[in-house]
Amino acid sequence: MIMHExxxxxxxxxxxxxxxxxxxxxxxxxxxxxxxxxxxxxGGKTYEYDSLVLATGGKVFIPPIEGTNLPxxxxxxxxxxxxxxxxxxxxxxxxxxxxxxxxxxxxxLALANIGKDVTVIEMMxxxxxxxxxxxxxxxxxxYLESKGVKFLxxxxxxxxxxxxxxxxxxxxxxxxxxxxxxxxxxVRANVDLAKELGLDIGQLGALCVAPTLQAYKRGRxxxxxxxxxxxxxxxxxxxxxxxxxxxxxxxxxxGRVAGANAAGKNLQFGPVASPWVSIIGDxxxxxxxxxxxxxxxxxxxxxxxxxxxxxxxxxxPDAKKMTVKIIADKNTHRLIGGQILAGEEATGRIDWITAAxxxxxxxxxxxxRAENAYCPPTSQVRDVVFAAVEDLVxxx
Amino acid sequence: MIMHExxxxxxxxxxxxxxxxxxxxxxxxxxxxxxxxxxxxxGGKTYEYDSLVLATGGKVFIPPIEGTNLPxxxxxxxxxxxxxxxxxxxxxxxxxxxxxxxxxxxxxLALANIGKDVTVIEMMxxxxxxxxxxxxxxxxxxYLESKGVKFLxxxxxxxxxxxxxxxxxxxxxxxxxxxxxxxxxxVRANVDLAKELGLDIGQLGALCVAPTLQAYKRGRxxxxxxxxxxxxxxxxxxxxxxxxxxxxxxxxxxGRVAGANAAGKNLQFGPVASPWVSIIGDxxxxxxxxxxxxxxxxxxxxxxxxxxxxxxxxxxPDAKKMTVKIIADKNTHRLIGGQILAGEEATGRIDWITAAxxxxxxxxxxxxRAENAYCPPTSQVRDVVFAAVEDLVxxx
Lengths: 396, 396
Prior knowledge:
- The structure is a homodimer.
- By secondary structure, the first copy, chain A, is an alpha+beta fold.
- In chain A, 26% of the residues lie in helices and 29% in strands.
- Chain A contains ten helices and 23 strands.
């Protein structure tokens, strides 16, 4: 439990929380005559339920290579994991981080800032490879390099080397000496319990859900099983198909819908653009909808626009650079993605672009309709987001 | 000219700019047989035109009271006006500011910060009276009071007193000694030239325009007169009727549409929500769409939601307080207004709310569809904007 003690929930919310107890099995069976058998077994006890909420989350994907069980191998997922890393850092100087996603990069800078010798090892040719484009991500890599972080790009981690503990990693055939390795290699849905319940797993390896966040069993809705968080896949707002939205903000929205519906309401969870933002030192990078990489994977033809300006009026002191990239579907002209790289104020702007994407506007409509608040200390009179869409319309 | 010298426009844009020259008269007449007479007279010379762009702007409204011609009376509108204020401040200690809109308040703080004795005199019972609600604006007044700015509320300025120069103002019958008075009492459309052209003036005292920003004459479109900036009224995005959008950001959008269309394009200027933001010391106040005051004036029934939270995760250092208020139409449940009071990061969020308003969502749809980017240093996992809409839905 992170936010409160179990006793807080008991007292303030009348919720009984059982910790350090694994759910051993779960049943949700409908007999021919319609009779339901519904219970979970946990800690040797059987609990019957009216509604079951599955919030089993995700687990960090660790590549199937040798040596990942050695002391000195970590993942970043839980508070406990963080505490273990903190402890092990006391006797470590060289740290290898596998994966250059935002978690890997935020960790890399934090470790460089306390004087550690950090090497990030990434299989792809850019940092933040799935959700950011190379032109937007490269400046983040350069920034981290300026802070002393080393990168091995286009290099898979092929093994962890050591006898009693981590001594090196095998990265693309090279032996990189290190005292510890942190895997920040993405999260997979934890569907163990869902499989036991016989629930439908979707194309992306996560639970299929209705907009009400109810689960399915062989295509039939399970009216009393609700799903939320990293274990589910959902509908994309920028593509007619499923997507993963493994973000804290999405999980909270899903939790509220699943919880309310489990208690008898009828809320819906909409299609997602999945906006994200990462603060890496004095650089902010944010995105929403599809990156060019994802669009290409989905087979969507794109046109992009890009503009660089300032976060304040150009005559106002301390303005930071801001680059905005906007992506549209080449055929429909609808906005399907946006990315921001800025020294400040990226968060609200990516939420703005997200709202525009969710409303289904074309690039041309955006230029006509969108508006931005202007004040010299916090924006240019015509915001950089506009300039990017203007460039996009030219390219269309 | 503010941004560039006239010579820059001649060289870089092939635009001939004539400065310090008043347009004395303008003609746009259609004879019975369809023949057009089109020219302007300026500096004694006659210029024929294919397209005429009217960008005559606004002028600061100065109440019709005695003494406003005395030395020491100023308005805040032009760079020259600012320079004159700066010069006169050298021999002034006590400054009265008429009007507690954002311009008056930004000026009040700037003057208090350089040690002047500042009194703001406002006719209404709150600061930022037209576009912000009292509960959102009161903390700004308190903040300014903590910086030494004095306020006389519910008090009209009834006269400026002095023999050779300003010595005091008559504010609600009280004589307030001061060395200078600045009128920050709002801007009216400057329609002098438009009237001479016989163009239609709308209900709000500004020029009527088509979505293409063409003017009208007795209800008939003038295909070769284009309008932009503070001289025009436009369509509201939150009410079926006209509104004024006298903002720099709106003027730039309008200028691009009017200019492009004057040169043969067919762009449109959409209905506006008119987002604004003002940075007053370390306080930011922003708004979009209708305030409760405007809604009441328009006769729109409203329901509001409000929430206070933080600009960062609660465990993250240096989080600032953020209060968000959202206003919906009671009958349609559509979002029609939003206001933010925060220590940082208000601008992007008000643009986000604006995009939602422009897309026409109801409060309930917003809860289902909207998403926010999350990262502990720049937002809560469920942004305060969401919490405000949630409160609104409860109140609906």
